[in-house]
Amino acid sequence: MRIRIVDAFTDRPFAGNPAGVVLLESWPAEEWLRRVAAEVNLSETAFAVPLTGRDDADFALRWLTPTTEVELCGHATLATAHVLYTTGTAAGRVRFATRSGVVATEQGAGGAITLDFPAAPLTPVPAPPGLAGRLGAEPRAVYDTGPGLGDLLVELADEATVAGLDPRPEPHEKIIVTAPAAGPGAGYDFVSRCFFPGVGIAEDPVTGSAHTALGPLWAERTGRSRLTGRQLSARGGTVAVEVRGDRTLLSGTAVTVIEGELLAGPDQAVGSQST
């Protein structure tokens, strides 16, 4: 069984957000999925299974962190689509049945892949007690992103504040921070960083799903439906965003950096360990 590591939302290796990708013929035991994700030990590993008998989706897709399964993941979806397209397994518009409904991908003429995701609903909320102290910066606005994401979206003063954060979030928290770009010549419109200890990720390098909330926020602020976001992690990455009503289109490229054989297959017993 082949397993691949794909860097997503980047056009070069060792940047963007790496994701594991495993294409399966059918769903194995849940425990095996979790152990593979823990072994890969990236922010997410994606598992895809072809579907038959469904008119609305071509593959089932699940995303697992090293500790839990998540509702929505952009970079691992981009990575999966990249594998499907580059291996000739799929072409054109590909639809995935997920825990967040059906999402779709399509590859453009230049190689960029566009993800068609639901837009996250934003609800202004009071800042949780002690949030400014944990972030090391004073929030300008705070939003709940709804059950699909379950993240707290925090607007900060400026790009320099976002870049300079050294936060100490609570173990259960999932926080997106954002601010406008420092200037019009930056090549992007807004910046972000994502801290997700609540799902076992201290800081996510590039978070596609977060842009389903970031896109609508900055579209409303700027009056523009097409924007570019830059995630200011150590690896860094760029996400092109287009807001279309209750959908958010996210575009980027990906690079396969590792391809190998997964020797511990689903038929291998995983229920016991020697001590």
Automatic annotation (TrEMBL):
<comment type="similarity">
    <text>Belongs to the PhzF family.</text>
</comment>
<dbReference type="InterPro" id="IPR003719">
    <property type="entry name" value="Phenazine_PhzF-like"/>
</dbReference>
<dbReference type="GO" id="GO:0016853">
    <property type="term" value="F:isomerase activity"/>
</dbReference>
<keyword id="KW-0413">Isomerase</keyword>
<dbReference type="Pfam" id="PF02567">
    <property type="entry name" value="PhzC-PhzF"/>
</dbReference>
<feature type="active site">
    <location>
        <position position="44"/>
    </location>
</feature>
<protein>
    <submittedName>
        <fullName>Phenazine biosynthesis protein PhzF family</fullName>
    </submittedName>
</protein>
<dbReference type="GO" id="GO:0005737">
    <property type="term" value="C:cytoplasm"/>
</dbReference>
